[in-house]
Design brief:
single chain, two-stranded antiparallel ribbon, two-stranded parallel sheet, alpha+beta, 191 residues
């Protein structure tokens, strides 16, 4: 494992949106998710695992709305691909992706900051390994999920079956926030 400091570039700028638009966007993405086939916001709120996580987040983070908490929960569960793929590729986000990312950004901004180092587990493609040297700063054009503590990779579906997993120790520079009460995998103390 290699210790690397990584920085999120903050390349995203949130947009204004209405509650109706936010509900439409979240419902669209939750319907598209392979795990969920939810047709209405009422069906979403009726799911105990969703409602419980959102309620806990709203109680733990003053000012976080139900839609913001729902966006972070879905992002950490499987929705991260919606915004991270185009951001990492340098592609513009669609209006729906901008609204989804803005909900996440707003929720994260209301969570407490993390000043201690955090961890990230990842598989680095062979052609990019030279960029990841100890002490080097790596900039990400995306939201970056990290953890304060890792128990195992069992809950990380994107790493299942991988043998060349690298653990990075990252020193945040003011952009890391503690979101464990909104995240899908609470055990990791996600930041």
């Amino acid at each position: 494992s290699t210790a690397v400091r990584q920085v999120n570039t903050g390349s995203f700028s949130p947009v204004a949106f209405s509650t109706t638009e936010a509900e439409r966007v979240l419902l669209f993405y939750l319907k598209e998710s392979t795990q969920y086939n939810l047709r209405t916001m009422e069906e979403i709120w009726a799911r105990p695992e969703i409602n419980g996580k959102v309620s806990s987040a709203m109680g733990k983070y003053p000012g976080v709305t139900a839609l913001e908490a729902l966006a972070v929960w879905f992002y950490s569960e499987s929705g991260y691909r919606i915004v991270n793929r185009p951001l990492r590729a340098g592609l513009p986000l669609s209006r729906e992706q901008m609204v989804f990312a803005s909900l996440i950004y707003s929720a994260i901004a209301k969570a407490p900051s993390v000043s201690k180092s955090v961890l990230r587990k990842s598989v680095i493609p062979e052609n990019l390994k030279s960029l990841y040297k100890k002490g080097k700063i790596v900039r990400y054009r995306s939201f970056l999920s990290t953890a304060q503590v890792y128990v195992s990779t069992s809950g990380m579906s994107h790493l299942k079956g991988q043998t060349d997993i690298t653990t990075f120790r990252i020193q945040p520079r003011g952009s890391a926030h503690k979101i464990e009460w909104m995240a899908e995998q609470f055990i990791e103390s996600e930041a």
